[in-house]
Structure to design on (170 residues):
């Protein structure tokens, strides 16, 4: 397991190049995003600024080297969905299978509960067992799969929907 220090922290704009690099590592893998081409730093600036107090973006870093990032985003803009968020989590290729994903997901769950949300949704490609197992380990439950909803490289892919209901904070 990675060291407990330094703690996972809110992302800073200076972290954005590392966040974009880590995200772009997942594009050719075809197991974590429906983006078919890498994104740019310029394209991600508005996205970064959309993650403020209500929808934070965190990084896990060791000696100021970002190992991974996680965030929560609105599930839907309709008011009835205001207590539900969707999580995203990406780990640098060289840092995978070292506990960073588990640490970031545990932090995301704790902070999401602290912010008063009730439900976290994870949309995960059905062919990504590492992410599925990680979320299940942290108490997410698969609610179903949407068959053949993503079309990548001439192949239709299934997406699993997992949720975690958060207990009300007292």
């Amino acid at each position: 397991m990675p060291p407990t220090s330094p703690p996972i922290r809110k992302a800073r704009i200076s972290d954005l190049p590392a966040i974009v690099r880590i995200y772009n590592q997942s594009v050719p893998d075809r197991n974590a995003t429906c983006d078919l081409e890498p994104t740019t730093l310029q394209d991600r600036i508005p996205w970064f600024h959309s993650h403020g107090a209500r929808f934070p973006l965190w990084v896990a870093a060791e000696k100021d080297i970002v190992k991974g990032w996680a965030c929560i985003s609105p599930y839907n803009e309709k008011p009835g969905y205001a207590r539900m968020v969707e999580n995203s989590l990406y780990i640098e290729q060289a840092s995978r299978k070292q506990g960073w994903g588990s640490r970031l997901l545990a932090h995301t769950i704790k902070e999401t509960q602290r912010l008063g949300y009730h439900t976290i949704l994870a949309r995960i490609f059905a062919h990504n067992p590492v992410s599925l197992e990680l979320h299940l380990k942290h108490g997410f439950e698969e609610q179903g799969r949407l068959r053949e909803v993503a079309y990548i490289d001439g192949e239709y892919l299934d997406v699993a929907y997992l949720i975690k209901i958060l207990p009300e904070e007292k």
User: Anything to note?
Assistant: The CA atoms of residues 1 and 99 lie 5 Å apart. Residues 100-114 form the longest helix (15 residues).
